[in-house]
Design brief:
two-stranded parallel ribbon, four-stranded parallel sheet, 152 residues, alpha/beta, 36% helix, 6 strands
């Protein structure tokens, strides 16, 4: 069994929301908790902090702060195998691919077998019956334009 902690590093939509300085305090605490990993939930792994003063992404700052003391996992607009590779090139040892698996449940198998070109990077309406997406969830996808890339 593995034990980790998932967090969102910033609340960019709130004027007085969480910022990276708050996240640093959390990371400093978490690295001392004997966790197997920490998981940063990002809107995009290449997004910059709200109060950005340099060119580093949130992910790069989180990795620097964790400093190898605990593995970091991150999610955030990782849809294609190239997206995952770019995140790993930043030093991320673990990549979360939630949306990608909803759009293509065979994502991991295709990538593992060198069939990256076959990975679906859009939620194809014609394949809905094969994807086993519950009706309520499908309704949420449709009500939130831009959350998923949807094709006909």
């Amino acid at each position: 069994m593995y034990l980790g902690f998932r967090f969102s590093p910033e609340e960019s939509s709130k004027v007085d929301g969480l910022r990276m300085r708050d996240t640093y305090e959390l990371i400093d605490f978490l690295v001392g908790q004997d966790l197997d990993y920490i998981h940063a939930s990002l809107d995009n792994v290449s997004s910059k902090p709200v109060d950005s003063q340099d060119e580093k992404t949130r992910l790069e700052l989180i990795l620097e702060r964790a400093n190898g003391k605990v593995p970091v996992m991150a999610a955030g607009s990782i849809i294609t195998p190239d997206d995952a590779l770019k995140a790993m090139e930043l030093g991320l040892p673990l990549v979360a691919i939630g949306h990608a698996l909803i759009m293509d449940p065979n994502w991991v198998e295709k990538v593992a077998n060198g069939r990256e070109a076959e990975v679906d990077s859009e939620l194809n309406v014609s394949k809905l019956d094969q994807l086993n997406i519950p009706e309520k969830l499908w309704n949420v996808f449709q009500a939130m334009p831009g959350w998923f890339n949807i094709s006909k």
